[in-house]
Amino acid sequence: MYTRYRDEQAMYRSNRGPQLRISPRLVLAAVIAIVTLIGYYSRSSHNPITGRTQRVALSPAQEIALGLQSAPEMARQFGGLSADRGATALVESIGAKLVAALPPEAHPYPFQYHLLADRNTVNAFALPGGQIFITEALYSRLKTEGQLAGVLGHETGHVLARHSAEQMAKTQLAQGLVGAAGTAASDYGAGGAAQQTAAAVAQFSLMKYGRNDEIEADALGLRFMHAAGYDPRALIGVMRILAEASGGSDRPEFMSTHPNPGNRIEQIKNAIAERFPRGVPDGLVP
């Protein structure tokens, strides 16, 4: 009787066909992906400056602490702070005008504007929390106060749009999903290749967001410099200077986190026309 029962059970199992087995690595990969996505989408913050809801990796207090901690090392990499007192004073003065004209809903970041001694690298950048830098190489190419206000206003836009905290959140999301892809693919002997492919896709995605950040910072810079009394059209001159400084590089825009200055000029013109449909007011500092 027992033998007959055992044979019937064996026949039943064989009729059911092969059993579905879920790999533990696939389960782990799914858990990693789910936790990563939940973490990303749960960190939402409404930005009153941009009007967007963002996913950010840092609180404003953490942004400020990170910026203050990183500022000395960043200055060292560009030759330290400039010894030109007059130029430094002008950078700080225009920065102060921009801050004084910021809208009341702006986060209370402790903005500081620095001139760096590097006379070879044409650059300006902002750290999280309000530490803003421009090199002597770029400063020396600017022709008007309005152009300097455009550069500093653009970098101020990066800070208030919280682009660094947003980019960090996207990077953490990409890294988590790349790790999940590598874990899942390792069961099929292709973990390394799959992870590299996923990493490449993630990197292109982050580059795209970086370019969008630049366009948004341009629009905010126009807004801030106008509020401080400067002609927003001066930012067009900055783009032309940056185009000249690039030496006519034909590097594809798709591979760069910064849009081509020529393309940005058209974006800036459109933003000015939208903001001033009757034309830019008279009496602004060029």
Description:
- With 286 residues, the chain is mainly α.
- It is built from ten helices and five strands, in the order ααββααβββαααααα.
- The chain has helices at residues 2-15, 24-41, 60-77, 85-100, 136-139, 145-160, 163-185, 191-227, 234-245, 261-275; strands spanning 44-46, 53-55, 112-116, 124-126, 131-135.
- A three-stranded mixed beta sheet has the order 3-5-4, with helices on both faces. A two-stranded antiparallel ribbon has the order 1-2.
- A hairpin with a 6-residue loop joins strand 1 and strand 2 (53-55).
- Helix 6 (145-160) packs across helix 8 (191-227).
- The longest helix has 37 residues, at 191-227.
- It is globular.
- The termini are far apart.
- Residues 200-209 and 250-255 have low confidence and may be disordered.
Short description:
It is built from 10 helices and 5 strands; from the N terminus they run ααββααβββαααααα. The protein is mainly alpha-helical. It has a 3-stranded mixed sheet with strand order 3-5-4, with helices on both faces.
